[in-house]
Amino acid sequence: MIEIxxxxxxxxxxxxxxxxxxxxxxxxxxxxFMEYHSDRFQDCSYVFLDEGRPIALMPANVAGDTLYSxxxxxxxxxxxxxxxxxxxxxxxxDVLLDEIRRREIRxxxxxxxxxxxxxxxxxxDLYALFRHGARLIRRDVTTTIDYIAPGARxxxxxxxxxxxxxxxxxxxxxxxxxxxxxxxxxALQSRxxxxxxxxxxxxxxxAKRFPEAIRLYLAQQHDRPLAGVVMFETANxxxxxxxxxxxxxxxxxxxxxxxxxxxxxxxxxxRFFDFGISNEDGGRILNEGLVTQKEEFGGSxxxxxxxxxxxxxxxx
Length: 316
What we know:
Layout: E1 2-6, H1 12-21, H2 31-34, E2 42-43, E3 46-50, E4 53-58, E5 61-63, E6 66-69, E7 79-80, H3 86-102, E8 107-111, H4 124-131, E9 135-146, H5 155-166, E10 170-174, H6 177-192, H7 200-209, E11 214-221, E12 224-233, E13 237-245, H8 247-251, H9 254-265, E14 272-277, E15 279-280, E16 285-286, H10 288-295, E17 300-310
Parallel strand pairs: 6-8, 13-14
Antiparallel strand pairs: 1-3, 2-5, 3-4, 4-7, 5-6, 8-17, 9-14, 9-17, 10-11, 11-12, 12-13, 15-16
Helix pairs in contact: 3-4, 5-9
């Protein structure tokens, strides 16, 4: 018998323990990460029990008439342990949708966790979504190197790596977050008119909370930062969360050199190296120049999918 229990802080240790050993856990779902911006979202997360034992979690927030999984996270969805079979997943969805109806929430927006982040296959949720008539409302392309079967690197990227080497660019792991945040903020403002999702204070705080998962790498010349990449590490994936270069860094191809360094750095410890998405306008526009640059390092496409279920009798 599956039960659904709204998350409260009394379940914090239970939540974090299940996430840590789940088939598809991620440090994004650790409450220490989720709650750094808790003032921005009305939390509506759930714990699912089978005979009184927690077997699944769903990070979620509610806004208006919609339950999201979760607006403050890149992706979300149900976090499951080894006991969640396909049959149990269908039962989980039954109680979840009953709870949504009880709360008179009109729809659910579900950000499925990309399969590259699974410790072992965990796509029972996608079958349940299909069974309940979910509609795909967004798909983003993320470019990923599979170290088992990498693609070929282009001659253009090889030339960039050689150019950075010739210019004397070096590569280090660093804690100089303010220096990189200045480069990142300038690049985002000049190109897109936006600021980074995290403030420098927030990323420093998160890096201190998750020192094994959040790392900064810099390309520098004569000890002066030219470019940087913030890496988010999970069991299988080394993900480039923030990427930026100064004008001087672009002249010396500093990012090409830095990515060459990072791809080699993670080759023996991770299955995937992920460059992140290259989409705009809810996934409907592909930034062709950006995705090509990533693919030229040997990456190919994985997807981030978002689904919608309108909870009423006509669709269930």
